[in-house]
Write a structure and sequence with these properties.
- Helices cover 28% and strands 22% of the residues.
- By secondary structure, it is α/β, with parallel strands linked by helices.
- Strands 7-8-9-10-13-15-16-17 form an 8-stranded mixed β-sheet. It has a 7-stranded mixed β-sheet with strand order 6-5-4-3-2-1-18.
- A hairpin with a 2-residue loop joins strand 7 and strand 8.
- The longest helix is centred in the first third of the chain and has 18 residues.
Length: 344
C-alpha cells in the first residue's frame, strides 16, 4: 500500500509519500515542506508533528525532494535543520536530499524581495554544514528506485537547468525588481467569470527561471503512475514525458496528477491537459494568497479537457475557493476538499 498525504498549509506544498516496500520496510518520501515563515503555522504545528510520528515509529525519511528553492517549498526542511536539538537527535533518519543548486562561493547580494536565492543558498549551506547527503543536477531522464517504487524525473531539462545555474551564479547577485515568482497573473481574481467564457487557446507560459528549474517526476508503484509537477510548466513537462517514453496510445496516463504552480494559468495549457488521462487531480492553492491562486482559468481548462469528468482535490478549501464554483456549470467535475490518497 502507498499513501500520498498533502499536509494542509494554505497554498504551500508539503507532501508525504509513504509505502510498505517489498523489502518489508516502511519507506517515506517527502516533497517540499511548506513556507519558511510563519514557522509555527507551517513547521511547528504541522510538519514537525508528522516528523515526530515517523521518528517515534523508528522510521526514516528515505528521500526529501526540494523541487525548487522558493521559500514556500523549502521551509519544512530548512526549519527541521534549524530545530537544532530535534535535528541532532534525528539527523541520521534523513537519508538523502535532492535539491538543484549552483554557487561559486560567498557573495554580498542586493536583492528586491525575499523569495528565491537567499533561502536556497541558506538551505544548501545548512545541508553541507550538517553533512546531509545531497544529490543535485537532477534532470529529465534521471531515475531512482526505492524498494518497489521507481521515480522518473521529467523536469527540468538541460536548457532550464543551464538558465537556473547561470541565474544562481551571476544574475541573482544584482539588484532585481522582477517579482520573485515570475509571470503570475496576480492583480485580481477571475472567479466571477464563467467556465464557458474562457478562451482555451490563449496561453502565455511562465518562463521564470526558478519555476522552470522545478524537479517534476513520475512515481511508479505496482502499476500506478503519479505525476508530481511542482511549479513546472506545460512545455517542459510535455517534452520531459516524451523523452522518458511515458506517452501511451497518444495520451499520458496517470492515476494522480499534481496541477503545477498552485493552479496558475501560466503553467497548465489546455493543449497539455487534454493529452492527459487521469481520474484525480490536486491543487495546492487557497485563493486568498497574494497571487490569487489558483486561477479559475486553469480549472476551466481542466474541466474542458475532461468532459467525462474527473476529481479535483484541494489541499485547503475556504469560502474564497467556493466562489470559483458558485453559480456556474462545473459539468462532470467533482470537487473534493481532501488531498489524501491510498493506492493498494
Amino acid at each position: 500500500m502507498l499513501s500520498v498525504k498533502y499536509i494542509p498549509m494554505q497554498y504551500y506544498d508539503a507532501i508525504i509519500i509513504r509505502f510498505m516496500g517489498d523489502d518489508g520496510s516502511v519507506h517515506n518520501i517527502f516533497v517540499d515542506g511548506g513556507n519558511i515563515n510563519p514557522r509555527k503555522f507551517c513547521y511547528t504545528d504541522r510538519l514537525k508533528k508528522e516528523l515526530e510520528f515517523l521518528f517515534d515509529k523508528g522510521e526514516s525519511i528515505d528521500l526529501w525532494i526540494i523541487t525548487h528553492i522558493d521559500d514556500d517549498h523549502i521551509g519544512g526542511l530548512y526549519n527541521f535543520i534549524k530545530d537544532t536539538d530535534f535535528f541532532e537527535t534525528h539527523h541520521e533518519q534523513l537519508k538523502e536530499v535532492w535539491m538543484n543548486y549552483g554557487g561559486k562561493g560567498d557573495y554580498k547580494i542586493k536583492r528586491t524581495g525575499t523569495i528565491g536565492y537567499h533561502g536556497g543558498k541558506n538551505l544548501r549551506d545548512l545541508l553541507r554544514e550538517k553533512h546531509v547527503s545531497i544529490k543535485h543536477n537532477i534532470l529529465t531522464g534521471h531515475t531512482s528506485t526505492l524498494s518497489d517504487v521507481t521515480i522518473t524525473v521529467v523536469a527540468p531539462d538541460e536548457n532550464a537547468m543551464k538558465r537556473y545555474i547561470e541565474w544562481w551564479n551571476d544574475k541573482e547577485f544584482k539588484d532585481v525588481t522582477q517579482t520573485a515568482d515570475g509571470l503570475i497573473k496576480g492583480g485580481e481574481w477571475d472567479y466571477d467569470k464563467k467556465f464557458k467564457d474562457f478562451n482555451m487557446e490563449l496561453y502565455k507560459e511562465d518562463n521564470e527561471v526558478k519555476n522552470n528549474s522545478s524537479i517534476a517526476f513520475v512515481l511508479s508503484y505496482h502499476g500506478y503512475n503519479l505525476l508530481f509537477s511542482a511549479d513546472s510548466c506545460s512545455s517542459i513537462l510535455s517534452n520531459g514525458l516524451n523523452n522518458v517514453d511515458i506517452l501511451k496510445d497518444g495520451k499520458y496516463k496517470f492515476d494522480l496528477m499534481h496541477i503545477p504552480h498552485h493552479g496558475s494559468c501560466r503553467n497548465s495549457s489546455f493543449a497539455f491537459l487534454k493529452d492527459i488521462i487521469c481520474p484525480k487531480y490536486v491543487i495546492s492553492g487557497n485563493g486568498t494568497n497574494r497571487y490569487h491562486l489558483p486561477d479559475k482559468e486553469t480549472i476551466a481548462r481542466l474541466n474542458a479537457a475532461n468532459p467525462m469528468g474527473c476529481e479535483l482535490h484541494f489541499t485547503h478549501m475556504n469560502f474564497k475557493l467556493k466562489e470559483i464554483f458558485a453559480n456556474d456549470n462545473c459539468g462532470n467535475l467533482k470537487i473534493i476538499d481532501n488531498a489524501n490518497f491510498i493506492f493498494e
